[in-house]
Structures are given as C-alpha cells and as structure tokens.
Specification:
It is a multi-pass membrane protein. With 293 residues, this protein is mostly helical. Helix content is 67%, strand content 0%. Helix 8 runs parallel beside helix 12 (260-284) and helix 11 (240-254) packs across helix 12 (260-284).
Length: 293
C-alpha cells in the first residue's frame, strides 16, 4: 500500500569466504570471518577429542596418569640419581614444581604437536569447504587446552599433599597460562604451515620438544642457573619458556610476585608468536589444498 514502509530485506543465512590470490587478505574481514565461524573450530576440536576417547572416563584418567608418571620418573632422576642438596629445594617442593611446570609445558606441547598435523590431516575438508583455514590449527589449540584442564585440580591437590599452602598469588599464574596458550596458538599455526611444505617436520617435532623441555625451567628452577657461565645463562634466559614457566612456577610455589620484566617478556613472546605464526599461515593458506591433496 502507498505510504507503507517496505519490510527490510531478509538477511542472508549464508556467508561466503573467498580465498585471496596473493599475499595477505584484508585482515579485519578475515578475522571477522574467523570469529563468525568459531563454532566450526569448536566442533573440529570436539570431534578430535571424541576420536581419541579423551572424553571417556579412562581417557580422562590417562590424561592425568601420563604426566604424573613422567613427573615421578623425572623426580627419581633429579632427587635420587643426581642427589639432593641440603641447600636446595625440598623434595616436596621439587615434585610440586615438576608437576606444575610439566603440566603447563604439555599445554603448549599438545597444541604444537596436534597443530602440526592439523592441516595435512584435514583431507577433503580443505577442498570441499570454504572457511578461514586458520580455524584448523586453532581447533588443535582448543584440544590441547581441553586436555590440560583436568590437570588443574590434580595439581592443586598435589600442592597440598607435599606440604605447600594455597595463597592468593597463585591467581597470577592465570596470566602466564594465558601467555602459554597464546604462544601455543602462534606455534601451532607456524608448525601447521611448515608441515604442509616439509612433511617430515612433524616427525622431528617430538625431539625438538624434548630438547626444548630440557632447556626450559621444568626439570630445574630458574634460580638454579645463577652462577652458571654467562653463555649458559644467556641461552636459558633467551628461551621464551623461561619467563612464562618461570613466572608461573614462582607464583605457584614461592608465592612471590615476579619482577615486571618477567611479565612484559612473557607477554612479548606470546604476542610475537601469534603475529608471526598467524601472518605466515594466512599468507600461505591459499596453497594448502593443492599441496595437501
């Protein structure tokens, strides 16, 4: 009828994702699509968890038993084989540090190892479905975080059993866990891209992660590198995990707030990893379907 306002056109229920041809796409639009399709990454992660039976009772139990066995083995090596120093930390403190640091390190390790094979294992999804490919390694990071969550109450119990006390500064550990999670996102995207071009990279990754763990404050405390040669100290302190795991352990075990540069350095490594990993992944994702299939 005349004078009657016409009804607004119905919004489309569909979204179109067009791969960019060269270089980087419009990043603002790209990450808007990533956010809109976040449920796709969630479902990919859930299917991966169901496929590995991590959501079952025995699967969840193994997520706790496996790192606990590793912590026990490393504790025996450090305390009984190397010997316990009267001036060093107590055995209980050492075991609490081992479990907390190993659980946190495995958060990043699981994100990296799962993310490395995420694109090459996507198969025909790359060819038949249009979506921002960055969602694939991000779903792997979500899987790693899901596997990490059951270890939190386990560590809190261990913390009490070894004679330590809960304190308010432990809440600050969330910041460093967040840095590890963001750091793992960037590494997952970077590793996924490298695996597309170099398939053997995923096979070398477990050895790289094992060496990285030895260089990180997992089997040793940050305070124990004092008095070492300057070259050794520079190597240890230059490790991105040094500030993230070191600050995390300091808040949980010692109850001391780390220095400001520890917080800033941890945030720097996390942001740098995301920027480099995401940009490298996005700039190459247009070739994935051709190289994977």
């Amino acid at each position: 009828m005349a004078g009657q306002a016409s009804a607004p056109p119905e919004e489309s229920m569909y979204q179109q994702f067009t791969p960019h041809r060269a270089g980087l796409p419009n990043l603002v639009e790209y990450f808007k699509l990533v956010w809109r399709r976040r449920e796709f990454a969630t479902e990919m992660s859930k299917s991966r968890v169901r496929g590995s039976h991590d959501n079952t009772v025995f699967g969840t139990a193994w997520l706790l038993i496996d790192p606990m066995l590793q912590s026990t083995i490393y504790f025996v090596m450090i305390t009984f084989i190397r010997g316990h120093s009267s001036s060093g930390p107590t055995p209980g403190h050492t075991f609490a540090h081992l479990t907390s640091a190993l659980f946190a390190f495995r958060l990043c390790q699981n994100a990296l190892s799962t993310g490395a094979k995420s694109v090459t294992g996507a198969g025909k999804v790359l060819l038949n479905t249009n979506f921002p490919r960055l969602l694939i390694p991000l779903s792997a990071v979500r899987t790693g975080f899901t596997r990490f969550l059951p270890t939190i109450p386990l560590y809190l119990l261990i913390h009490l059993l070894v004679g330590e006390k809960w304190h308010v500064t432990m809440i600050g550990g969330i910041f460093f866990l967040g840095c590890l999670l963001v750091f793992g996102m960037g590494l997952s995207a970077l590793a996924a891209t490298l695996t597309v071009y170099f398939r053997d990279f995923a096979n070398f990754l477990p050895y790289i992660m094992r060496l990285w763990m030895y260089l990180s404050p997992v089997l040793w405390l940050p305070s124990q590198i004092k008095g070492k040669p300057p070259a050794v100290q520079s190597l240890m302190e230059g490790n991105p995990m040094y500030t993230m795991l070191g600050g995390y352990s300091q808040l949980l075990q010692n109850g001391h707030v780390p220095a400001l540069h520890v917080w800033v350095t941890a945030a720097f490594w996390a942001i740098a990893s995301v920027v480099v990993g995401f940009l490298f992944f996005i700039s190459r994702e247009r070739e994935f379907a051709v190289r994977v299939l």
